[in-house]
Amino acid sequence: MSTSVNHLDERTRDSAELLEEIMPTAITLAMMLRHRKMAAWLRTEFDGYQDLEAAPPYRRQLHGHIVAKSPQYGWIPAPMDDQQKEEFGYMDLPEGVKSLEKICLNCKKGSGNRVLLAKEDMAVLQKQINLTAELAINLSRDVYCRLLRTVRASIYLWTQELMAAGLAGEHNHYSPEERAKVAQLDDPETFWRRAMEEVGALPIPDVREVGFFERVFGRAG
Predict the structure, then answer these.
(1) Whose CA is closest to 137, among 94, 87, 180, 95?
(2) Nearest 5 degrees, angle CA 136-CA 20-CA 7?
(3) Which end of the chain has the least Cβ crowding within 10 Å, N or C?
């Protein structure tokens, strides 16, 4: 199998490329370079985190807004005090990149995704605010997009370092000498921590919004 660091780098900056489609190539490259930590992190990001405690901070305690389902008005802001908002207004996103990207693609800019509270949390909060209505947390599209851009930026930063080390061009395999030259770059945490801080300044596109015809008829191949 052939892969190119340059091409992967270009794809991370191309808004037409879905992260879901980029990641298998990144995994292949990591395996070819014997970057086992990077490959494992990429696979987990792709598939989702079974162990929530292992999820990076960009997936944990993401801020949302609690809403209640009114039979008259639909979903409306729940009557909560600041302490309740602090306790219940955050959620984790352990799902894989594909499902998160799908949510983001199908959300219009300025909108979000509504997730029902866990039964236990809902029961506690319903009692506290004296409501029997269903309760959910609404996460904005921006929250999903920032998570996805952070993962994408991590791959971009990794490819930038690989190219800076001289690993450019098309390769069917890498020699032991080439692999040794970049062995220290098998450190996904370094890249995702940098991405968390720098994503706003990096040339990483936002997740595009799917138009009506694409939602109905699918993406042209």
Answers:
(1) 87
(2) 145
(3) C
How far the first Cα of the chain sits from its last, in Å, is 22
Alpha-carbon distance 164 to 142, whole Å? 32
| Gap between the Cα atoms of 192 and 60, Å rounded | 14
Q: How far apart are CA 129 and CA 116, in angstroms?
A: 16
SS3 content of the chain, % helix, strand, coil (to 5): 55, 15, 30
